[in-house]
Design goal:
The complex is a heterotetramer, with 2 copies of chain A (about 325 residues) and 2 copies of chain B (about 375 residues).
Chain A: H1 7-23, H2 26-32, H3 42-50, H4 68-80, H5 87-98, E1 112-115, E2 119-120, E3 127-130, E4 136-139, E5 143-147, E6 157-163, E7 166-168, H6 171-206, E8 208-209, E9 212-213, H7 218-232, H8 235-246, H9 252-278, H10 289-301, H11 306-319
Parallel strand pairs in A: 1-3
Antiparallel strand pairs in A: 2-6, 3-4, 4-7, 5-6, 8-9
Helix pairs in contact in A: 1-3, 1-4, 4-6, 4-8, 5-6, 6-7, 6-8, 6-9, 6-10, 7-9, 8-9, 9-10, 9-11
Chain B: H1 7-23, H2 35-50, H3 69-81, H4 90-103, H5 106-118, E1 123-126, E2 142-146, E3 151-158, E4 169-175, E5 186-192, E6 198-203, E7 212-223, E8 227-228, H6 234-246, H7 254-271, H8 280-305, H9 314-336, H10 345-353, H11 363-374
Helix pairs in contact in B: 1-3, 3-7, 4-5, 4-6, 7-8, 7-9, 8-9, 9-10, 9-11
The chains are: A alpha+beta (about 325), B alpha+beta (about 375).
Chain lengths: ~325, ~375, ~325, ~375
């Protein structure tokens, strides 16, 4: 029994964290709200050069041949910096599915996005994986989209209207794709929440009212302590889900649902607490907090929201014959 | 106890409902927190005013109907039920006007009230400053006596001024006695925003609209007739306004009952026959809470009508409605599932609801007030 | 429109409050935990002399001929002092049903208790009203009971085994009895909660730790503020329910369910907050707090708990055809 | 990451499960917080001890098996799953023993540990005083040097001492330096309760059992060999104990997973096929939280096993398990409806669970600790 990541996994996480700190400061996230494709530009290429974008692609196909357990911390890091890219869609869902038809997905020269049913960055993507209504792998250039507006303006949400060049997905491919995406979004929600907590602790330490830092008031302390507690007891469920997927545990789907439900709740709590503790300053568009907050709202609802996933858990533990 | 409306009140409701049905724009107006939307909303305010629906509880001489608080409640119920446009004039009508009625000179009342009601002049609030948010008494902006100019020179900065970039006037607090501390030595000024030395910079709120503004004052001269209430009396004068902002007038139940009804409709629409086991209870709780808020308001209005003004209990009200509003919208977004992130009135409403626990005294401050002044717990 | 009680209703409330302050101090409640019948003794007789126990009995039958609206505040007062008596069972349910067969119930010389299905003070009662499994009005002396143990030792809970002398209840009688009992328990829950809040405010003002009264700490202030808020927005629902019953409003049952759900939640919040703010002192059996707390637990669950009543509201507002 | 148990660990579990199945009393014992029940529980402890299950993680010389933390977790899982009797010796085994192992002399260890494990001597905790609850450092009980007696004279009062009326020994803090303040000048003493000058008065807890005691000291003489750790070093010595009380050792996940499993069984039993739309989500949340607590513990044990001792994060754990335990029982009582008020293991468990957020440092104190020492927020 050993509930910990390996030195290699942590070193990989640190390398990606360093890369993202350099390539994806808040200014990049903010720029993605108004630029052409909603994406980061250089951060994506740098991740590609590092091999991260092909992490789950088998080595025979030029990928790193890693498992969900090896990339869950990387997804968390992309959440921490609110990376404006289809990271989960490409790394956990799309690349492994598309690599035979489109080898260039391995290094991110071609981008895959994915959705169920709505697809972020659909127009910008070279390859599309969509799970509903008709589960298929489609070539972006052959597809037409309906543009949707997400509260997170960097997500460039679309709905696939039709694609000429595509192949249907097998039931197994659909299932793997769905649960990997769920895991990836759960991990990103953890990272987003950790960053919002750090931002708020820093702000509460420096902002003074009534002659004291507001972080010295119990009302602030206890709200932030509650966020820290929620994170402490959400992360292990997400990491366990990664392990279950990596080891084909028969309960992997159940574990993914537990992780997403808890991570989404922790993320929503972190977001509303961060806003309340920032007050009007955090309510200003010019402040970065809302970029993290709105990404959190979006990811919490996508690939099944907390209520949907808890309902799946309920079906498994409550409704099956005793 | 009598929980039904009088024939006169029912007639008032019927007339109003008919008028709203005939005049409320079929298409929702663009957000009143944008320059273009603000202008469109002012046109609507003018329509309301011309039909004497803008300020029903005011005296007729200023465009009102001398309506009772009960009729005002009916007005709010019907207004929100009809999904009529947001009231971009509300800061003037709900925050400044009560103070003008209580402390204003006859000249000030004649000069400002009608134009405020018609929207010809629009008012924003100048309370907060970069270092005076929850701690309002930390105001640093100053007003210095200028005998030659026959008035006061304003200096300093106000911020988070709602719709400040679109309004014509600002009301706010400035420090007239530099030696006084905290709540003392402040004065309440009425400031035309075209006064030389006043600069306004709009900036975005959570939803991206330019609904906030910073207002900078550099030796801006305001004459003595623009002082509301006594010099150095600003705090007590302003508290009347804050009281009404935090209390009854700004948050009549109509808004939340209408939202709760829309939430119920959304639930039925999304969930259909089979009850959603997870959200059903949340919807029901929110609906019951909205009903509780309506009934508690009837209780309060009964007291106020009997001559017992709303007091510190308004802190209880502010915490409850602001957190109820968030719950109503959170529940709706949960019902929307993956569509929650899409542009929608519910998301827009959620973003707006999130400001409730922050402005007009954060709910942390309000809970302190409840504990110390309602329950009598020790300050230190 | 007038949401307020009349001068007469408030004066009656004050008179009963004064009587209970004298006749039912905490020592009486504590004594009822270990005495023969779990009851107050003199308080009951004094209420009878005042006419309160026949409040809802028509004047022609010797009662006061009052309505639910006239007695809801009296029930709240009996909750405030945790009166150990079948007050709601007798005044709101039993006396009006039994007065023709048993005229002495008017002044409380005979006591009626009631339950659905479990009956507090069953053995001590002269007359029994039970709504399930077989709704009937029974003579206590002719009945046999199974004794049950309530967490509130003063309640002397029983289950009716059988009664020789009894008559069945009509559907109308059952419905009126149920909703009046629900209202009465809701009002008592408000009174219990108000008293627990007052006890806790007093304790937090006087108890010092870390050199200050604990009531000066925000963590305590905000918890108690939340209880005060919950009460502020529970009471109007209960009072409205009383008005609806008194005026035969078609939605009276719905209004009673809203009141019970909200009052039960406010009561449970007040109880757990009071305990947490009292700490180990409140956790001691010798302290009076637990007498109020356990009464609250019992009343919150009886005559339909919050979940059951909210489900009824849900059926009315959500499930009926749009 | 490796989330399965080794063959050795599985064998340990199998042996234990078999033993428990054969020995756990079919009828639950009377409450260990009553005099009679306490005696019955001591017999059970003796049975555990004789089979070397009482203190599996201790060295063999004191009756243990030198088991790993992992095996200890397995022991707790199986123990709670089997619904075996409460551990009335836990204050000694879980709170005092770690301190004895760390600070005790060889003589003290030999003298006390085995008898503690077998239940021949039973220990209660003497921390709290009437004016030192959350504010533990406000301890006033004194120990005054008595050269002629070759030890210290204890005076003062301890209270809320769990099972103090039934135990043979008390461990606690007394002020040896009257000039020192707060955390300084305290000393950790081991006190036989039959020492002349010591009076114990049992009193009731929330559930009515006599599970609490007040202990009065009047010039009670304790010899130098009953000082644990250095004179005036009591606070730092005691913190090791408090650390373990607040941390891992007292609240292994087994207890909450077993409760969650019983809650699920109760839900199925009460609700049957048709899902209860209102409580289904609550049950599911509680179940997931219990699972989260188990996994977080595996994480912690992995760290501890790697030589990184559990630190201040134990405050996170304490808040979570204590509030989870309350939620688990609240949900069960809600499922019981009107029967909730009836005598039942769930009600008894609820009354006990309510002590969780209070003892071992109230959750208010714990949240301060989390904010200041985990998050680094300013104290003042």
């Amino acid at each position: 029994m050993q509930f910990a990541f390996t030195e290699d996994q942590l070193a990989f996480r640190d390398a990606v964290r360093d890369l993202l700190a350099k390539e994806c400061p808040p200014s990049v996230v903010r720029a993605a709200w108004s630029n052409a494709d909603g994406r980061s530009g250089s951060a994506w290429n740098a991740l590609g050069e590092m091999g991260v974008l092909g992490a789950l692609v088998p080595e025979v196909s030029g990928g790193l041949g890693l498992s969900e357990l090896d990339v869950v911390l990387l997804a968390e890091e992309t959440g921490r910096v609110a990376l404006p890219e289809p990271f989960v869609e490409h790394v956990l869902v799309g690349a492994p599915l598309a690599v035979l038809e489109h080898p260039d997905v391995v290094n991110g020269v071609m981008t895959v996005s994915a959705g169920d049913p709505v697809i972020p960055y659909g127009v910008a993507a070279d390859v599309i994986v969509v799970l509903a209504p008709d589960a298929q792998l489609a070539t972006g250039s052959s597809a037409t989209f309906e543009a949707l507006t997400s509260v997170d303006a960097s997500r460039r949400l679309t709905r696939l209207v039709e694609a000429n060049t595509s192949r249907p997905l097998t039931r197994d491919e659909i299932s793997v794709a769905f649960w990997r995406a769920t895991l990836g979004y759960s991990a990103q929600l953890l990272g987003l929440a950790r960053q919002m907590l750090d931002m708020t602790v820093a702000y509460a330490t420096e902002r003074r009212q009534f002659g004291s830092p507001i972080g010295s008031f119990q009302a602030i302390k206890h709200q932030l302590a509650n966020v820290r507690i929620a994170l402490e007891f959400a992360a292990p469920l997400v990491y366990r889900a990664a392990h279950s997927l990596a080891t084909n545990d028969p309960d992997a789907a159940l574990h993914c649902s537990m992780g997403k439900a808890q991570a989404a709740d922790a993320g929503m709590l972190a977001a509303s607490t961060a806003l309340q503790c920032h007050g009007a300053i955090g309510y200003s568009y010019e402040h970065d907090l809302h970029l993290w907050m709105k990404r959190t709202w979006a990811l919490a609802g996508a690939w099944g929201d907390a209520a949907w996933h808890r309902d799946r858990v309920a079906r498994a533990i409550l409704d099956r014959p005793a | 106890m009598e929980l039904s409306w009088s024939p006169a009140e029912q007639a008032f409701r019927a007339e109003l409902r008919e008028w709203l049905a005939a005049h409320v724009p079929g298409e929702p107006l663009p957000s009143g927190d944008t320059r273009e939307g603000f202008a469109r909303h002012l046109e609507w305010e003018r329509t309301l005013f011309d039909a004497r629906w803008a300020v029903v509880s005011w005296p007729e001489q200023y465009g009102g109907r001398g309506a009772s608080l009960w009729e005002w409640l009916i007005f709010e119920e019907e207004y929100y039920r009809a999904a009529a446009p947001q009231r971009v004039t509300q800061n003037g009508i709900f925050l400044l006007a009560p103070t003008l009625f209580e402390f204003g000179t006859a000249d000030q009342q004649d000069r400002f009230l009608s134009k405020m009601a018609s929207g010809e002049e629009s008012w924003c609030q100048g309370w907060s400053e970069p270092d005076a948010g929850s701690d309002l008494a930390a105001i640093r902006s100053t007003a210095t006596r200028d005998e030659s100019g026959g008035g006061w020179r304003l200096n300093g900065q106000k911020t988070w001024t709602t719709r400040g970039a679109f309004c014509t006037h600002l009301f706010g607090l400035f420090r007239t006695d530099p030696t006084a501390e905290r709540h003392r030595g402040l004065t309440y000024f009425l400031v035309p925003l075209d006064t030389p030395g006043v600069t306004v910079r709009g900036f975005g709120r959570l939803d991206g609209d330019q609904g906030f503004a910073e207002v900078f004052f550099e030796d801006a001269l305001v004459t003595d007739d623009l002082v509301l209430g006594g010099v150095d009396q600003g705090w007590s004068v302003a508290m009347a306004t804050t009281g009404s902002e935090r209390g009854l007038t700004l948050r009549s139940p109509g808004r939340f009952n209408a939202t709760a009804d829309r939430l119920v409709a959304l639930y039925r629409d999304r969930v259909g026959a089979a009850p959603d086991p997870l959200l059903r209870d949340q919807v029901t709780r929110a609906y019951i809470d909205a009903e509780a808020y309506r009934l508690q308001t009837l209780q309060t209005v009964t007291r106020v009508t009997a001559g017992d003004p709303p007091g510190i209990e308004s802190s209880l009200t502010k915490v409850f409605w602001s957190e109820l509003d968030v719950r109503l919208h959170e529940t709706a977004l949960a019902l929307l599932g993956y569509e929650a992130e899409l542009e929608s009135p519910w998301m827009k409403g959620y973003e707006f609801a999130l400001s409730g626990p922050i402005y007009a005294g954060t709910n942390e401050i309000q809970r302190n007030v409840i504990a110390e002044r309602v329950l009598g717990l020790p300050r230190k």
